[in-house]
Amino acid sequence: MIDLHCHTNYSDGSAGPIEILDQAIGLGLDALAFTDHDTLEGYDCAKDEAQARSFDLLCGVELSTHFPSSTRSVHLLGYFASDPGECFRAWLGGLQEGRRLRNVALLLRLRELGMDISWDELEAIGKKQMGRPHFAKLMLDKGYVASIPEAFHRYLAEGGLAWVDRDEPALEEALARVINAGGVASLAHPVRINRNPSDLHLLLAVLAQQGLEAMECFHPEHTPADTQLLLGLADKFDLAATGGSDFHGSYKPDVKLGSGRGDLNISAAVLDDLRERFAKNRSLPDSHAAPAYQLKVS
Ligand code: AMP
Ligand code: FE
Ligand code: FE
Ligand code: ZN
């Protein structure tokens, strides 16, 4: 069993990379990918330890991207067989700046709404890169909400009292960045975008043409019918069918590493498919990697 979607406390998971690595080894997982939001720091921190313990830890990232017709963020997973390099890392650094500004605006908004919360208190929870789950946890700890879902529903989610929009890269730019860094891009939990088969078909036709090579077919938020639909579409567009628990530790207490809500069991064969794609991309001339979207050089 493998798990290709997991968050450490370098983004919005509650557990540290080494603690999660210990858990994965204890559970007997064959492989694990760290896919923190917009950062590789969790992976960087654990990669040597994983190698020393002969554990297959993959370098991954989950990018929050802007989808033209919607105000909702579309999440794109990137997986890398080797280091994605300085250009990609510098780009991630820029995304984190945008997040920091959003976090300041969000804190100010919550204070305007009468909540006595400070940046220092947030940093004590967030450690590295703060996300909305850290705000939710602090609001819960201070008694402003009764649960994390309530914090999102009333305040933090789109349409909530403290909703703050964030600058995000366009989906096609994120896709191009992953490909240019030698990675394989996988569309994360696609049912959050749409559950309609013909709408998903339309979207995938464009994304596959722009270089999307995988799609997250296995995820705790997918019903069995969703999974079947997504596997059919993955087959149709020659996408690797990836999957993972989207583990966030205590921020999503019902989701376990590896098994999700209990019924996730992703075969190691999924990883073989990904690795074949890594190898194929490396053996192709550079022109293959040039996506339809041209990166803007400033
Ligand atoms: P951010 O990247 O800071 O905008 O926060 C997004 C993260 O918040 C997601 O990756 C989830 O971990 C979490 N999240 C988003 N919506 C909800 C929700 N309704 N309930 C709980 N967690 C959520
Ligand atoms: Fe998250
Ligand atoms: Fe996500
Ligand atoms: Zn995730």
TrEMBL record:
Q: What is this protein called?
A: Polymerase/histidinol phosphatase N-terminal domain-containing protein
Q: Recite the lineage of the species.
A: Bacteria, Pseudomonadati, Acidobacteriota, Terriglobia, Terriglobales
Q: Where is the Polymerase/histidinol phosphatase N-terminal domain?
A: 2-67
Q: Name one Pfam family in it.
A: PHP
Q: Which organism is it from?
A: Silvibacterium bohemicum
Reading the lineage from the top rank, the first entry is Bacteria
Could you tell me which SMART domains the record lists for this protein? POLIIIAc
Q: Which InterPro entries match?
A: PHP_dom, PHP_domain, Pol/His_phosphatase_N, Pol/histidinol_Pase-like
One example of the protein's molecular function in GO is:
5'-3' DNA exonuclease activity
